[in-house]
Design goal:
Order of helices and strands: HHHHHHHHHEE
Number of helices: 9
Strand content: 5-15%
Mean pLDDT: 81
Strand order of the largest sheet: 1-2
Largest sheet: 2 strands, antiparallel
Number of strands: 2
Helix content: 55-70%
Distance between the termini: 22 Å
Shape: globular
Radius of gyration: 18 Å
């Protein structure tokens, strides 16, 4: 809900719970992460809004960007799969089935055996429909992460160790210190992602 209770509820433009993109930005939600959130549901299906769900989508979006970015410098085996474009086309032609298209996009990005050039081309084709600005945003994210001060990345590493040791009090305290310093931390499949908070 717009009041931040975490409870999913229906919003109407005439109601007091109506949320604008500016509201989301003020709460640290990237507009493209919100687009990712919406694309995970079919356009004709009602979607129950909650900040927790949008935050989860943002984590998934940045996790995807981080995964995409990390593979640019890695050498991978060539395995061209021409069927991928046809699968994607089938999803988008099937009443714009964006949830399946997003799922396929994630599989392409996470595929470590797919040739890098083929992956870049494929993701570019997908993104021309989905509009998630993956290549540019992944580069921007890599630059932001590289600019995080050493003491903040060290705190993030200590927080990860504390979480693994199930010392959640210490992990929460370290998260608070990181956020007070003007950074945010997201837990992804590839480890913690630290970046400066959105203004």
């Amino acid at each position: 809900s717009a009041k931040g209770s975490g409870e999913a509820k229906k919003m109407a433009k005439s109601g007091e719970d109506f949320i604008t993109l500016q509201t989301l930005k003020e709460k640290g939600i990237h507009p493209l992460a919100y687009r990712y959130y919406l694309l995970q549901a079919h356009y004709r299906s009602p979607i129950n809004f909650s900040f927790e769900a949008v935050q989860s989508a943002q984590n998934a979006y940045f996790n995807m960007l981080k995964s995409f970015s990390s593979q640019h410098s890695q050498k991978v085996a060539v395995r061209i799969t021409p069927d991928i474009a046809e699968w994607f086309s089938n999803f988008t032609c099937d009443d714009l089935d964006t949830p399946s298209a997003i799922s396929l996009l994630r599989k392409v990005i996470d595929d470590r055996e797919l040739d890098q050039h083929e992956k870049l081309k494929t993701v570019g084709v997908f993104d021309s429909v989905l509009g998630l600005d993956i290549e540019n945003q992944s580069k921007k994210l890599a630059e932001e992460m590289a600019a995080v001060p050493k003491e903040i990345t060290e705190k993030a590493a200590r927080r990860s160790a504390a979480r693994q040791a199930k010392n959640f009090a210490e992990a929460d305290a370290l998260r608070a210190e990181i956020e007070q310093a003007g950074f945010e931390i997201m837990d992804t499949d590839a480890g913690p992602l630290v970046r400066r908070k959105l203004n």
